[in-house]
Write a structure and sequence with these properties.
Length: 194
Amino acid sequence: MLRTNLSTRPFYNERAVRLLLVAAGALLLFVLGYELQQGIALSRRLSQLSAQAVLDEQRASALRGDATRLQATISPAELARVQSAASEANKAIDGRTFSWTGLLNQVESTLPPGVVLTAIRPVADDKGVTVNLSVIGRTVGEIGTFMDRLEQTGSFVDVLSTAEQTTDDGRLQVNVTGKYRPAPRRGAAAEGGR
């Protein structure tokens, strides 16, 4: 079997083939030019960022040196005095931002029927806030229910009865003490009253 191309023009539509090859070549040149431009732009950006990083490192090193020098000039006694003043200021701020509304809402939601709150006194110290409550109830069970409900809120721990006495009308007056750890507030502006 003979396999020879005897035609003088193997492609009958040379113009379409050439046009297709020129279009593909132009597309490749366009893509190559775009990629080259992007490469140059990214290279310039990398150079700028590298120079900025070097400047930032130098500045950070200078600031660390300044901080070391400043720490060397502060005496331990002065530092202790400043820390004590800051602690005192924080206590004052904590006392000022104590949420009476939150505390009263917690107590109100736990009062069972028949138990009346007659006095409430929070005391803040280094360990937190201790709340002293004076309540009057008809039975020991009602007072016990109130104390259990306080602890179940999660905001009160170590709830104890510190003193009991009977009133003239036969009801029990009990002093209740517990450590108050309120849940974090969702926003300082959310609390209207203190």
